[in-house]
Amino acid sequence: MVILAVGGYDPTGGAGISADIKTSHTLGVYCLSIITSIIPQTNKEVYEKYDLSKENIENQFKSVFEEFEIEYVKTGVLTSQSIDILLKYIDKYDLKVICDPVLASTTKYNFVDEKLMDKYIELFNKSYLITPNREEYNKIMEFVKNKNYHLKKDLYILITGIDDILKRNSTTINIFKGFKINKEVHGTGCVYSTAITAFLSKGYKLEDAIKEAKNFILSSIIYAKKTKYGYNSNPTYINKETVIKNLSYAIYLLKKINFTLIPEVGSNIAESLPLPKDFNDIASLTGRIIKNKLGGFYVVGDIEFGASEHIAKIILSASKFNPKIRSCMNIKYDEDLIKTLKEKFKDKFIISSFDRSEEPPNVSTMEWGTTIACKKIGKVPDIIYDKGGLGKEPMIRVLGKDSIDVIKKVEFIQKIYNSIKEK
Ligand SMILES: Nc1ncnc2c1ncn2[C@@H]1O[C@H](COP(=O)(O)OP(=O)(O)OP(=O)(O)O)[C@@H](O)[C@H]1O
Ligand SMILES: Cc1ncc(COP(=O)(O)O)c(N)n1
């Protein structure tokens, strides 16, 4: 698949063409790119906007259309010259345009004046989808009303916010629920509209493309790149295939470890999609990791979503504190091991615990215990343990950003355990 991104260049890579290319590449779609303006900026301010000449933009268009078959075009920051050229190419090649109308930067630098707004309206009426944020949508509708313009009946409009509203002209046809992450991330609009374009180029229907792009942008925000003045979007795609591959490799690694910290009830390891809503967003073994009679272990069952409740509840609770924590594994409790980890490896492992005797009635122990352990230290620990209770085996739970991270922690913990027991 190939898409074309037409937009401005942001040297910090948070927005514009750089973000478009990273997004498209992450989704396995080849991204052609035409630069309209060079816009040096930080997350505090835009320094300037240098518009490339009509001739140069014309040659950029000429080169990509000579070399490639193009169906989908995503637009970011546009200029009058680039819109004039694009309008000609839309007619000539029957292009499907996804227009992200970037009227101003988040740092309040205006990219558009009234003359250019006229051109944007012309472009909207030749586009398939436009993706204004709420503020941009209101400005566009006010402009259309004041100038007595009209938007074509079959124009799809996705008004982005935390929840995103999909309209077909003025009729709302779907709402895509979001989840506010406490970060102001630069370039989310660019990444989101390019992800939608990439999924459309893969053959997704519009609403499926938006749904999948929504998951994509949320991951790209969770894993945003911290900068001096803020955060830059970091195009990241974690889907069911990613999770299954991680878990398969984690179990492959486990089999290379002389893993003996297996509790009587057996171990399980689970990993979730970003921002899991329920068990179905979390994959684990349908069976268990159980001791065999030769001092080793068996891995019983397959990797399936929805297979675990116990470990899944730990991840569901932990991810509310830190959406980057997506995996957990339970291993055998040992008092000397916890003591040694607390005393000698506090720089490597953050440890917390809960006491089953303090459990209130009518709660899920794992949800309650995980929440207590996280609240105690104000973050998600690497290890959560409890000393058991009536008919309940003491347990250590290892948490991490994915199942491979968890297995590497388990491997280290196993080595510490072995060294203690050898003494
Ligand atoms: N902090 C956040 N938490 C959750 N979702 C967010 C956050 N910021 C942006 N998004 C999502 O990213 C998508 C696009 O973001 P937004 O609505 O901010 O567009 P935008 O203002 O054009 O972005 P930008 O101008 O920063 O490139 C929307 O679906 C929105 O829900
Ligand atoms: C080149 C370029 N393209 C798009 C944006 C909008 O991004 P934001 O709204 O995060 O400022 C930008 N600032 N720079």
TrEMBL record:
GO biological process, alphabetically ordered: thiamine biosynthetic process
Domain Thiamine-phosphate synthase ThiN: 247-410
GO MF, one example: thiamine-phosphate diphosphorylase activity
Keyword terms, alphabetized: ATP-binding, Kinase, Multifunctional enzyme, Nucleotide-binding, Thiamine biosynthesis, Transferase
EC code: 2.5.1.3, 2.7.1.49, 2.7.4.7
Recorded metabolic or biological pathway in which this protein acts: Cofactor biosynthesis; thiamine diphosphate biosynthesis; thiamine phosphate from 4-amino-2-methyl-5-diphosphomethylpyrimidine and 4-methyl-5-(2-phosphoethyl)-thiazole: step 1/1; Cofactor biosynthesis; thiamine diphosphate biosynthesis; 4-amino-2-methyl-5-diphosphomethylpyrimidine from 5-amino-1-(5-phospho-D-ribosyl)imidazole
Similarity-based family: In the N-terminal section; belongs to the ThiD family. In the C-terminal section; belongs to the ThiN family.
Record function comment: Catalyzes the phosphorylation of hydroxymethylpyrimidine phosphate (HMP-P) to HMP-PP, and of HMP to HMP-P.
Name the UniProt record assigns to this protein: Bifunctional thiamine biosynthesis protein ThiDN
